[in-house]
Amino acid sequence: MRPTAVVTGGSGGIGGAVAAELRGRGWQVVSLSRREGCDISDEAQVRGAFGGIEHLDALINCAAQLIKAPILELTAADWDAQIDAGLRGAFLCSREAFRLMREDGGSIVMVSSLSGVAGAEKFPGMAAYVAAKSGLAGLAEALAVEGRPHGIRVNTISPGAVDTPMLRIAGVEGPRLQPAEVARIILWLASPESAPLSGSNLRLDPADRAT
Could you list the residue range(s) of the whole structural domain that residue 124 is in? Predict the structure, then answer.
């Protein structure tokens, strides 16, 4: 039986690279994104999307949204949209993954950001995005504890600038990672090769890359 993964935000960016890498290695991939007809902040839609899955080996939470605006111009609706996409959706999908993995175990990977790491450089106009990514890393730590008795591993990866459309919205300059580079590390976290790692947050700073 082929291993099965759910990838949120799988229609582009890091999520798209992850989905492509998984398929290239023989995985069956269920990709969830608004572009593909699933709003992962909608509880009923998430339950429906997971309802047809009998066995799940990995969940990769890549979905995020960035609406750049200084705090005095940030609307409550735009705040909610970013928290919903980046944090509420990860909670809803992780809960469904736990239901599927609680007998045989599995791996959940949260794709956070250096923006969500305490002490890392922050950029103006990204308060909601930073809050969502920080919350995602905290959620992963909590779920790693709950998952341990069930053989469910939960880890976070926090890349810095990655060459995606979202980075162009952020307007961040300087060294950047490629989505495929990040995807390969995510696959390692999702696979049994990274056992028994759980509750960890891998930080990827493109400025630290060896040349």
Answer: 4-208
pTM of the model: 0.91
- The token duo for 17 is 């690279």
Q: State pLDDT tens for residues 61-79.
A: 999 999 999 999 999 999 9
The number of residues making up the chain comes to: 211
> d(Cα 72, Cα 89) in Å, to the nearest integer?
26
Q: How far apart, in whole angstroms, are the C-alpha atoms of residue 82 and residue 79?
A: 5
Whether 22 is a known active-site residue: answer: no
Strands (E) in the chain, as ranges, are 4-8, 28-32, 58-61, 106-111, 152-159, 201-204
92, two tokens: 């809803």
Q: How many CB atoms lie within 10 A of CB 168?
A: 9
CATH number at residue 132: 3.40.50.720
Count: domains in the chain: 1
Residues contacting 78, CB < 8 A, separation 6+: 67, 69, 128
Chain centroid offset of residue 149 CA:
23
The secondary structure element, H or E, covering residue 181 is helix 179-190
Selected catalytic residue, list 129, 144, 152, 187:
129
